[in-house]
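To: structure subgroup
Subject: Chain for Friday's discussion

All,

I'm putting the inputs and outputs inline so they're searchable in the archive.
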Amino acid sequence: MTNTPAIVLQRVSGDYERIGDLLDLIRLGFAYMEGVIDPPSSANRLNEAMLREKCNAEVAIVAVEDDALAGCVFLAEKDDHFYLGKLVVDPTAQGKGIGKLLVQEAERIAIAARKPLIELQVRIELTSNHAIFTRLGFVETARTSHAGYTRPTSITMRKQLA
């Protein structure tokens, strides 16, 4: 895993002793979306048991800064790529490059697994997130709708890896 001063990235599984803190981090990181995105984020439905299962089923990486959880990301392996989800940086730790470190680690994992790309989805309403992912090298490949919606609700973005 990659480290910068005071920021340590570590892979975790379902038996992670700080699963409650991780759930709190995800809820905190997605809280700003409440009332902004429609439909609401799936992060709202997560509980500790579901998060433990997610940590076992996917590659789960946390960023720790001075013993505090500062960020996380999950990678779900697909046939020809990894799906990057639940990328969160604690609002008090934003601006330190933690999100970029987590994405770079995801890229290293994908390359090591011989997956040529990473895919993610970002909600239509979150234009600042579109810009962040574009700066990180992701490009829009599709617009999709959640079940029951006739308008696009998400943008699919992909990054081709070297």
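Points worth raising on Friday:
The longest strand covers residues 68-77.
The helical segments are 19-30, 48-57, 98-112, 127-135.

D.
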